[in-house]
């Protein structure tokens, strides 16, 4: 008898909708929830499971514990032909 868990296949659109719903429930804006969910699902589709929707529980736990700001917005600070510096304050408190 094998101890391995059965594989459960989920349609990518259903996975994205699920991730978006969880993110919005945690306080992430609808627009950002779409971007984050899409990036997570695309990572799974590329076979990079370590950066896919399995990250959601840790992201949501960080929001619940107050160490990740679900309302954070990104700003582009520096752009060159080959580099872009994106700043995002993820912490809901000031240093």
Walk me through this protein's architecture.
The longest helix has 16 residues, at 30-45. The protein is 41% helix and 12% strand. It contains 3 helices and 2 strands, in the order αααββ. α1 packs antiparallel against α2. The mean pLDDT is 88. It has a domain at 12-68: Orthogonal Bundle (Hypothetical Oxidoreductase Yiak, Chain: A, domain 1). The chain is α+β, with helices and mostly antiparallel strands and 95 residues long. The protein has a two-stranded antiparallel ribbon. It has helices spanning 12-25, 30-45, 56-64, and strands at residues 74-79, 84-88.
Kindly report how far apart the N and C termini lie: 54 Å
Give me the CATH superfamily of the domain at 12-68: Malate/L-lactate/L-sulpholactate dehydrogenase, four-helix barrel
Q: Give the second-level CATH assignment, the architecture of the domain at 12-68.
A: Orthogonal Bundle
Strand residue content: 5-15%
H/E series:
HHHEE
Helix content: 40-55%
Described by the principal axes of the CA atoms, the overall outline is globular
Count of alpha/pi helices: 3
Cα gyration radius (Å): 16 Å
By secondary-structure content and strand pairing, the structural class works out as alpha+beta
In spatial order, strands of the major sheet run 1-2
Low-confidence stretches: none
CATH topology of the domain at 12-68: Hypothetical Oxidoreductase Yiak, Chain: A, domain 1
- Mind summarizing the main beta sheet? 2 strands, antiparallel
Q: Can you give the mean pLDDT? A: 88
